[in-house]
Amino acid sequence: MIGNFTNLFRVPEIRRRLGITLGFLLLYRVGWNIPIPGVNLDVVRQVAGDEGNAFTALFSVISGGGLYSCALFSLGIMPYISASIIFSLLTKVVPSLEAISKEGAAGQRKINQWTRMATVPLALLQAIILVANIYKQPITAGGDALIPDSFMITLGAMLTLTAGTILLMWVGEQITEYGVGNGISLLIMAGIIARVPEAIWQLIQKEEGGFLPFTLLVLFLVIVVVVVFITKGTRKIPVQYAKLTRGRKVYGGQRHFLPIKVNQAGVMPVIFASALLSFPQLMGSALGWTWLDNAFRVGAWWYTTLTVVMIYFFSFFWNSMMFNPVEMSKNMKESGSFIPGIRPGKRTAEFLERVMTRITLAGATFLAIIAIVPSQAALWISANVPPQVAYFLGGTSILIVVSVALDLVDKLNSALLMRNQGGFMTGSAAAAGKRRKGK
């Protein structure tokens, strides 16, 4: 295993990409510790490690930031995620945007540019709500707030939080283009992992005995095993290549498999659903609508129901964007391959669509269970577990961390296999033997 790990640093390109990724992640952690102008550091120290309630804890998880840290990156990457969701939906319902998205790389660049532009007003809106409803409200026993009631300081805090989100958006795009893995997902994962030691330490300091930590540890291990099992699970569809006879030689005829992941959408439906459902409570808190705030509070009936519905919706929506049965059946027909027992063309497209629908249903059910059940269990024992502990060790956080980590390992493994290095998770002895034979 150690030899496989060292292979990552033997290839100059992979070594460079890893260095860029780690450098940007370090920049993210540094920015997370830079306070915004005018913040009362004494109050920040008093509420250090506190996420207020279940909503702010979950918001910190899915945004990659920390609301009560009053830092440059406290708002996280949530506005960019929201803008991405909006334009992903618009490309399916607006014909002009759909036409632009089909123009290839040029059209995708246009949509990405519009997404970045839409991130700015969304970030400013969320910064206004955050400063007005959290930072300027009395938070200590003495009635002190994180930010004093001053127009210039308030304006500076809003602009700083907005600028921090824009910088994070740029960092995520740089990691995706020049680093390893998806930059936005890595930023969210880094924000979660950075808070796990503090959450575990707070849990250890509780005086309820060893039963509660042991129960959460068992729940944590079970969720990790289930997430890995489902994430790596695939439905293998047999594909037969037609035989081609030329003279005395016969070409083709091999049988391969078309792997379709059970959880094809990954963790994106959970992130999208959580991002959209964070808006009603933010607006209810900003406008003073208690009924809206309570209805969309984490653990409430409306919140739980809409979370499940949106996870199913975004799972099917995401897979419909990434998986085109008609195009796939057309490519199979042109390459001379077919699914045994299925006629090429329309029948193949219908079969692939039927299989994809069933797999998506199973994957969405898995995501809904992982996102809801551990969180409900954490809320059930919330009298003994702080919100930040419950959600940083809950199903959503584990799902994000494990899914992003597996995706990162797969990308590194593929990069090594392309360069005959034996892979990251596979033994390098076989590859070394082939290189010796080649010489």
Instruction: Tell me roughly what share of residues is in helical segments.
Output: 55-70%
- As a whole number of angstroms, the C-alpha radius of gyration is 24 Å
- Beta-strand percentage? 5-15%
Report how far apart the termini are: 25 Å
The first-level CATH class name = Mainly Alpha
In terms of structural class, how would the helical and strand content be classed? mainly alpha
Descriptive notes:
With 439 residues, the protein is mainly α. The protein has one domain: Orthogonal Bundle (Preprotein translocase SecY subunit). The chain has helices at 2-6, 12-32, 41-46, 54-63, 78-93, 95-101, 105-135, 151-178, 183-204, 211-232, 268-287, 290-295, 301-322, 325-334, 346-380, 387-392, 395-418, 429-438; strands at residues 234-241, 243-246, 249-252, 255-261, 337-338. It has a three-stranded antiparallel β-sheet with strand order 4-1-5. A two-stranded antiparallel ribbon has the order 2-3. Helix 6 (95-101) crosses helix 7. The model is unreliable at 427-439 (pLDDT under 50).
Features:
single chain; 439 residues; mainly alpha; Preprotein translocase SecY subunit; 3-stranded antiparallel β-sheet; two-stranded antiparallel sheet; 69% helix; 6% strand; globular; disordered C terminus
In short:
The chain is 69% helix and 6% strand.
Secondary structure elements and their pairing?
Layout: H1 2-6, H2 12-32, H3 41-46, H4 54-63, H5 78-93, H6 95-101, H7 105-135, H8 151-178, H9 183-204, H10 211-232, E1 234-241, E2 243-246, E3 249-252, E4 255-261, H11 268-287, H12 290-295, H13 301-322, H14 325-334, E5 337-338, H15 346-380, H16 387-392, H17 395-418, H18 429-438
Antiparallel strand pairs: 1-4, 1-5, 2-3
Helix pairs in contact: 2-8, 2-9, 4-11, 5-6, 5-7, 5-11, 6-7, 7-8, 7-11, 8-9, 9-17, 10-15, 10-17, 11-13, 13-15, 14-15
